[in-house]
């Protein structure tokens, strides 16, 4: 029994109205595996970096009990690098640099020791690579969660649709749900997307929370209203990692557990945005997480 | 003990992607009093119309037990008329026509029989007129709820701030909360607005629900995800009317009752948008309302 996270492990340079960073460690698999590690202790990652990636960063993942046996280090190559600048509203950003580097020909090799995978998180990557991972697992995991983005809808819709067919939970934002379905109403969009393969759809709405769709059921999760959003980078990956980490912990896949998983994922994401990059989610205590989850409870509870 | 609603009673002509109407009856006081009437049976209105306003429409308000003694009918004058066209996303609209007519010199006269007012809903009107109503009530109501909009912030900020000082609950949308406070973060905006007079602030976020702020407490209410929004006109007024109608029914002003009032108000608003104008909220049963409120409960409930 283990949880496999696939995605980028990379460098980011981020500028927000609050400041800017040099190259710091980021990447979907970094955020997601760190978040998952607070709930589950058999988290494996598959990713690729160049030999410019600091060994102490890998050691820090290991300290969080994230197994990096599947992290390929390519000699003489450079790690994926993304740089972006957020606008004042923090809801939109400009990409300044995208250097694929090692990611350009990433072949996701699954170590034999990872083959007991029950829970699979496909972080945002080309849908072709995501599909390859599914194919290379000898047994179909109990739960496959996939994150993707508008970029793949623009340039690889066919591959995306083929991969979506194979998964259980799709996590996208509201604009992406509209793009993928061609429907403006999120209810209609969800109905359509749930015929494309996934049994569950999570629509992330940032500061407005998230919606979970399954058959005819809908769950609306609040977002924690925050005085400051310092840096939104990685919030979606952190959400997804917290979500699947919690699911792996409880073990049983059903709508009620997914509702709670969304709350735990949202709680982790609410920490993530409080500092630059992965800083805040490297150093959380279980008490802090429990207290934050209680804030979500009191935020949305009413008795009629 | 009674509930007083002040606002417009007017004509609207509405165009949405689903169709367009001729002149139909609208206005903040119409929506709000109809919504309130499902929870409370002593609803009084103060408003003004011209003699072009159909008597049967007044009779229909009376059929809903809305007392129209304070509805002034100006001989030889015309009722307020607004015409607007919604964009495809239904979240934005263009105003095509605004004919103030009788509204231009509206003097809100409070009938003596309304002076037992415990709950006061100040529908969207000039803040000067809203303030006059407060001054003309011999006893300060137990709860004063005020709705306003960006228009008054643009042209009458000083009067608006003077009126806001006198009230208990302010209902505005997220853009208006940002404009009024000069803060982008809604948490910071709320903190600032709660120093301006109101003890409670409701920020309406349309399809994303609503936030209630009071001291250090926040309640996040979901919106019902709808397959079709047919016509959003009056949804905010219906929300406010349902909110204060429920508060008048339970009688006690506290945070928990307000949370429920927001759910009931949201339920009424979710009906409102299903048809053009006031059509849907003229003909609801208590069973329909109860069932809709239950949808809000199951939408947002989780057990951690």
UniProtKB/TrEMBL annotation, chains A, B:
<dbReference type="InterPro" id="IPR002173">
    <property type="entry name" value="Carboh/pur_kinase_PfkB_CS"/>
</dbReference>
<protein>
    <submittedName>
        <fullName>Sugar kinase</fullName>
    </submittedName>
</protein>
<dbReference type="InterPro" id="IPR011611">
    <property type="entry name" value="PfkB_dom"/>
</dbReference>
<dbReference type="InterPro" id="IPR029056">
    <property type="entry name" value="Ribokinase-like"/>
</dbReference>
<dbReference type="GO" id="GO:0016301">
    <property type="term" value="F:kinase activity"/>
</dbReference>
<feature type="domain" description="Carbohydrate kinase PfkB">
    <location>
        <begin position="19"/>
        <end position="279"/>
    </location>
</feature>
<keyword id="KW-0808">Transferase</keyword>
<keyword id="KW-0418">Kinase</keyword>
<dbReference type="GO" id="GO:0005829">
    <property type="term" value="C:cytosol"/>
</dbReference>
<dbReference type="Pfam" id="PF00294">
    <property type="entry name" value="PfkB"/>
</dbReference>
């Amino acid at each position: 029994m283990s949880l496999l996270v696939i995605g980028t492990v990379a460098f980011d340079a981020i500028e927000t109205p609050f400041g800017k960073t040099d190259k710091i460690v980021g990447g979907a698999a970094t955020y997601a595996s760190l978040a998952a590690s607070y709930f589950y202790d058999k988290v494996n990652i598959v990713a690729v970096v160049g030999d410019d990636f600091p060994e102490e960063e890998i050691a820090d993942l290991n300290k969080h009990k994230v197994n990096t046996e599947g992290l390929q280090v390519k000699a003489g190559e450079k790690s994926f690098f993304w740089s972006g600048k957020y606008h004042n509203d923090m809801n939109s950003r400009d990409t300044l640099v995208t250097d694929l580097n090692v990611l350009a020909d990433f072949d996701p090799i699954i170590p034999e020791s990872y083959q007991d995978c029950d829970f699979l998180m496909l972080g945002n990557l080309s849908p072709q690579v995501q599909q390859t991972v599914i194919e290379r697992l000898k047994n179909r995991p109990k739960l496959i969660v996939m994150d993707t983005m508008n970029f793949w809808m623009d340039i690889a819709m066919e591959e995306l649709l083929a991969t979506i067919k194979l998964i259980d939970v799709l996590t996208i934002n509201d604009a992406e749900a509209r793009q993928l379905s061609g429907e403006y109403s999120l209810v209609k969009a969800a109905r359509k997307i749930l015929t494309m393969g996934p049994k569950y759809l999570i629509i992330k709405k940032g500061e407005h929370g998230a919606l979970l769709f399954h058959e005819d059921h809908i769950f609306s999760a609040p977002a924690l209203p925050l005085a400051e959003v310092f840096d939104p980078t990685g919030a979606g990956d952190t959400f997804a990692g917290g979500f699947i980490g919690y699911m792996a912990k409880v073990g049983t896949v059903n709508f009620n557990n997914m509702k709670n998983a969304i709350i735990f994922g949202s709680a982790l994401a609410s920490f993530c945005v409080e500092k630059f990059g992965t800083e805040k989610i490297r150093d959380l205590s279980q008490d802090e997480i429990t207290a934050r989850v209680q804030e979500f409870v009191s935020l949305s509870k009413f008795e009629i």
